[in-house]
Amino acid sequence: MSTKKITAAANDVLTSKADVDSFLDAVKQTPPTAVSEGRGRLVFSLDATASRQATWDHAMSLQNAMFMNTRGIGELDVQLAYYRGFDECRASPWLRDADQVVGMMKKVSCLAGTTQIHRLLKHGLAEARKMPVQALVFIGDCVEEDVDLLGNLAGQCKLLGMPLFIFQEGRNTQAERAFKQMAALSGGAHCRFDESSAHALGNLLNAVAAYAAGGRVALQRLKTQGSGQASALLQQLDK
Known about the structure:
Elements: E1 4-5, H1 17-28, E2 39-47, H2 53-69, E3 75-84, E4 88-91, H3 98-106, H4 117-130, E5 135-140, H5 147-159, E6 164-169, H6 173-186, E7 189-193, H7 198-224, H8 228-237
Parallel strand pairs: 2-3, 2-5, 5-6, 6-7
Antiparallel strand pairs: 1-4, 3-4
Helix pairs in contact: 2-3, 2-7, 4-5, 5-6, 7-8
């Protein structure tokens, strides 16, 4: 098994070799996951540039809850993807154990760089063409790319049945406009959070995990159990 380097050019330049080697070591120690029909698949992607360190740490603590929330609903495979630094973008194998995902995240530190959201979307599309992917989650705070390109890729995500669930940290208005459009074009949802509402991110991720594992029926079930986050996501999905 090997990690996937999401490449944009033949001569990709790696940053922080020690971190990359550490991440690859974690991959080598991970037993293969046989992805089978009947299991939901979710790409969990993050901006790992320098401004994201706090969210990266918080996301690790939320992974176990994501998996726990799908028990009794359906099975879920998760793939971790991230970008950071100069031209570095990576994805893990498909995993079904929260500890494996968290272990890999712990091997990577955030590093200054510009956004590479288009590479994450292209990677998700490539995975969805091989086998259905029920959702792609992205956590980030800014957009430094061609919004028209991102919108086109988001539309392709919708055609393949892979809605984008975009969780935006902070109040960057330019990013908010782009994220909202991307979510709408993909048939997904956009939510904003900050330090004062970071606890809500866990519930939102749980709702997305339930959707990936059990579809709208699972979200509706959470709504009837009083989940405001499930209700909010359903409202956006039904627009």
